[in-house]
Amino acid sequence: MTDSIVRPMTAEDRSEVIELLAFSDPWKRLGYQANDWNSYFVPLPPGRDSYVVEQNGRVAGIAVVRRNFLLGDYVELLGVADRARGKGLGGLLLAHVEASVFSRAKNLFACVSDFNDQARHFYKKQGYREIGPMPNFLIPGSAEILLRKTAGPAREKSQ
Question: Domain count of the chain?
Answer without folding.
Answer: 1
